[in-house]
Write a structure and sequence with these properties.
heterodimer, A: two-stranded antiparallel sheet, about 65% helix, B: mainly alpha, Formate dehydrogenase/DMSO reductase fold, two-stranded antiparallel sheet
Chain lengths: ~475, ~475
């Protein structure tokens, strides 16, 4: 143990590269009985979710309003998990050194892609089509099904390619230093990686190109999803900022979840030395910025609708925020409560907490705000997808009736929701049996690039910048 | 990036402060062209006020023309200072050091220049006061505070005040250096401006805290200013203007043009003031990488605005898009805008060699600003020309020579103010350079010595 000037005891640093390898390759990947049990439970819940989705499909695809809670579950989980790899990708582009031990945990969420692709098929089939509706695809017969499926497939493939390239050096490390079945899997996946200068150069380029492609695909997939699965279903709703809002809120809730995951890995995963105060503090700052973006993107759209006083835009405000003004009893307006939950948690509460440096500069503070944001954005997706998927009216320049009887999710929808989350967790935990949650190659590189030296009357970190 | 030349404090003073103490020919030569432009602009404004707005190309319903386009453009450019200084300061980006001051000062001068445009646009500038202040209590005539046209001056003057404070605080240590090297009247003036700065630990601490606080406080102001400017258009119900994406679209466009303008300025500073020891290829590389991200974000919002113009297939919006895409000269403007803002510079900037080629970076940054000026024209003019539902109320706006001269003069004005400023204070902060030298370090990795920097941190790390 080392002790800082303020008396705080920090975990001792692995003195050598070999110790780091030992810790991440051997100790962190051990599958104990608790882990085995968790994997089986997750697998069971995934199977139940998939079965529930199939049963819903068998129940009929003609009436899209039956699928509103499925839509909420799908687009919530999609937004929640698919933005998390951006934390690794974006910070690598920004060359933030502090992100090194956290990149892998973020990038592993790209493995949620296949889950999202499978669970997309029912909601795609339940889409009522574009006839009589406004659309980005004009009168194209295959829209939105074909382009959206292509977009999502491309997004998922890019994510998988990215995570594969990212873990390649670690697969080789597991091949060279690991044991058991995971060693064999890693050996077959490592594809002859021996870490030559040429391989590292190609690795760096590939990460850059795939990272840029992932960011673009993320933005475009959110754009088509937000448009085709929410806006298109609502007569009179033309709102070009909404896709950007959808993407930004996805990032916010993704980062919220990622901080919670880091907290869990630190507390129960034995990785406290890698997920330190520095990471929580830095991610807390990012969370503050994204929380402000939540409001900015919401407000940019809202103020124009509110200010313009155009009847068809007033109806959209009623649909997504305040509820039917004809109903005097505010408690009887479900839209209002969803909106209050969304803005109250995702922005107001989150902002009032994370704006304080002592909250950001702690382990618990950002994690608590992360939970608040995850819940708040659930209300947000609820207000968007339940309301738009409850509309039966087709065509017209204005929404005539604000849906009031939005009902409750049934058992099947709840099982689908739990199944989706379980499937994502299962994929990530399975992958973590082969490669560690902390990127070995990036952390080893960090050991080379950072040294502590005397500076003035104390000591300081010296960070090498080879680029 | 950290592989900087080793300079002593006195070398830094000598190389950065010479424009303050000497008047060289290059300084005068750089001053003359913008000065001539400003004089031409002053003549044009005088004629405009004397003759009235009829000499412009403004006509019903297109009452917003070059002046408003230019106003929006300069507001946009003013965002660079905040973008560079605040964000890079908060993220502790080491490469910010030589460019922060020029960017911050450009913010102030661009804001001042932009503020002149609505005043000129009013035709009778003295009447602009009626928009802002109650002038007739007896008849109960008040400015309409619900109008974005009133929000504008409030937002811009707040931003201007904040920006001036931001610049001034960062200038204090350099004022003190000049004070200490001067005599006579100059010493008195700089002594007053330095406000008793002695460089004590407490003064440095306060200066640092103020810089961080201002960085955090001015960011929301910077976003709100251009958002409010965008609402001048979007809050109306004019087809193709009433678009929810306008606020972030304007902001990101502003950052795109502003950061490109900083790039232009960096090249100019390097050439005119011989700042090779302070502004290196690495800085152009870093700004180039930042611009790739900014430009791509801009393209995303451009795409949203463009795609949703066709979303509802309303006749008036289609008419505006037809004007933008198919009718001369807007079809050419659209092509030039997209080419110069994205298609030409981005593939070039993706190449590291190009990013480190100062001449190429200079010319591509000029291209971006041509594109971004045209983008403002593309967004504002066709929509106002087709704002009426009845086709016989449509009109085509053709800018007059007077308006064109005033637009050119605005560029001259910003350049002239910057050159005058450079005569008074170093455009590269001397104290930041000295701090950078203190934080300079090296790390030995194998047989290679890698440049490094000192990072302030309280907690030792385990990895």
């Amino acid at each position: 143990m080392t002790t800082t000037h303020n008396g705080h005891e920090a975990p001792g640093a692995p003195a050598t590269q070999e110790e780091l390898t030992q810790e991440l390759i051997h100790d962190a990947r051990q599958t104990g009985p608790r882990m085995r049990r968790a994997l089986w439970i997750l697998a069971l819940l995934t199977a139940l979710g998939a079965t529930a989705a199939i049963l819903m499909m068998l129940g009929g695809l003609d009436d899209h309003t039956r699928w509103k809670y499925y839509a909420v579950a799908y687009f919530y989980v999609f937004s929640l998990v698919m933005g998390i790899p951006m934390a690794g990708i974006g910070l690598r582009f920004a060359r933030a050194q502090w992100r090194r031990p956290t990149s892998r945990a973020a990038e592993l969420f790209a493995l949620a892609g296949p889950v999202m692709l499978v669970f997309f098929l029912p909601i795609m089939a339940a889409h009522p089509g574009l006839e009589g509706r406004n659309s980005l695809w004009m009168d194209w017969r295959l829209g939105p099904w074909f382009p959206d499926l292509i977009m999502l497939t491309a997004f998922v493939c890019i994510g998988l390619a990215f995570i594969y390239v990212s873990v390649l050096p670690d697969l080789a490390a597991v091949r060279d230093h690991g044991n058991g079945r995971s060693r064999n899997i890693a050996a077959s996946l490592a594809y002859g990686w021996i870490g030559t200068a040429r391989q590292w150069a190609m690795h760096k380029s590939a990460l850059g190109i795939l990272g840029a492609m992932y960011i673009s695909a993320y933005a475009m997939t959110h754009t088509v999803f937000a448009t085709d699965f929410a806006m298109v279903l609502t007569p009179g709703w033309k709102d070009p900022i909404f896709p950007a809002f959808h993407a930004v809120t996805g990032l916010q809730m993704g980062l919220g979840l990622f901080i919670v995951v880091q907290f869990a890995l630190r507390k129960w995963g034995g990785l406290a030395r890698y997920f330190e105060l520095e990471q929580f503090w830095a991610y807390g700052r990012l969370l503050l910025a994204l929380t402000l973006f939540w409001f900015y993107f919401f407000w940019s759209g809202f103020i124009l609708f509110w200010y313009g006083r155009l009847p068809h835009e007033q109806q959209i405000i009623a649909l997504l925020a305040f509820g039917d003004p004809a109903i005097d009893n505010l408690l009887a307006r479900p839209q209002l409560w969803m909106f209050v939950g969304a803005i109250g948690l995702s922005f107001i509460t989150a902002f009032l907490l994370i704006m304080w440096n002592p909250v950001r500069r702690s382990i618990l503070g950002p994690a608590v705000v992360g939970v608040v944001i995850i819940i708040g954005n659930f209300f947000d997706r609820l207000r968007i997808y339940v309301n738009t998927w409850s509309i039966e009216q087709v065509g017209g320049h204005e929404l005539h009736e604000i849906p009031t009887n939005i009902g409750y999710p049934g058992l099947l929808e709840i099982l689908v929701f739990i199944g989706m989350l379980s499937a994502v967790a299962l994929m990530i935990l399975l992958a973590s049996r082969v490669v560690p949650f902390v990127s070995l190659w990036e952390t080893r590189e960090a050991l080379l690039l950072r040294v502590v030296r005397p500076f003035g009357v104390g000591h300081a970190h010296i960070v090498a910048k080879p680029d | 990036m950290q592989d900087r030349p080793v300079l002593t404090a006195s070398q830094i003073n000598d190389e950065l402060l010479w424009p303050v103490f000497e008047l060289r020919r290059r300084h005068v030569l750089a001053f003359l062209p913008p000065f001539i432009l400003v004089m031409a602009g002053a003549v044009a404004v005088t004629i405009l006020i004397w003759q009235g707005l009829w000499i412009t190309g403004l006509q019903r319903p297109a009452f917003w023309g070059f002046f408003i386009v230019n106003f929006v453009f300069w507001i946009g450019v003013s965002h660079a200072g905040t973008m560079i200084s605040s964000i890079l300061r908060l993220t502790q980006a080491e490469w910010k050091r030589p460019i922060t001051r020029a960017a911050e000062v450009m913010t102030v001068f661009a804001l001042v220049t932009s503020l002149i445009h609505p005043v000129i646009h009013a035709g009778r500038p003295w009447r602009i006061i009626y928009w802002l202040l109650p002038y007739d209590f007896t008849r109960g005539i008040w400015p309409d505070v619900r109008s974005p046209l009133v929000w504008d001056p409030v937002a811009i003057t707040t931003y201007l005040t904040g920006s001036i404070l931001f610049v001034f605080t960062a200038l204090i240590p350099d004022f003190a250096i000049i004070r200490d090297q001067s005599t006579g009247m100059r010493r008195t003036i700089y002594g007053a401006l330095a406000m008793g700065w002695r460089g004590t630990p407490r003064q440095w601490q306060l200066q640092g805290i103020f810089g961080i606080l201002m960085s955090a406080l001015i960011l929301p102001v910077f976003v709100s200013v251009h958002s409010i400017v965008s609402w001048d258009f979007a809050a109306s119900v004019v087809p193709a203007w009433h678009v929810t994406v306008y606020a972030p679209y304007f902001v990101i466009g502003a950052v795109h043009s502003g950061v490109s303008m900083v790039l232009t300025l960096m090249a100019f500073m390097r050439w005119i003031f011989k700042l090779e020891n302070f502004i290196w290829e690495d800085h152009f590389d870093a700004v180039g990488r930042l611009l790739i991200f900014i430009a791509t974000a801009w393209l995303f919002f451009f795409f949203l605005d463009f795609a949703f113009s066709f979303y509802t297939r309303e006749e008036q919006e289609i008419a505006v898009m037809e004007r933008r895409l198919l009718e001369w000269p807007f079809n050419a403007i659209t092509i030039i805008m997209v080419m110069t803002s994205y298609v030409i510079p981005i593939p070039l900037w993706l190449n590291r060699k190009v990013r480190r080629n100062i001449a190429l970076m200079f010319w591509t940054s000029i291209l971006v600003n041509i594109g971004m000026w045209l983008e403002r024209f593309f967004l504002i003019i066709p929509a106002i020309e087709r704002k009426q539902e009845l086709t016989f109320l449509w009109a085509n706006y053709v800018p007059s020579l007077t308006e064109s001269v005033i637009v050119l003069a605005s560029f001259g004005m910003v350049a002239m103010l910057l050159i005058i400023f450079a005569k008074l204070v170093p455009l590269v902060p001397a104290w930041e350079q000295k701090e950078g030298q203190v934080f300079r370090s090296e790390v030995q990795i194998g047989e290679v010595t890698v440049p490094a920097i000192v990072r302030e941190s309280e907690e030792p790390r385990a990895w």
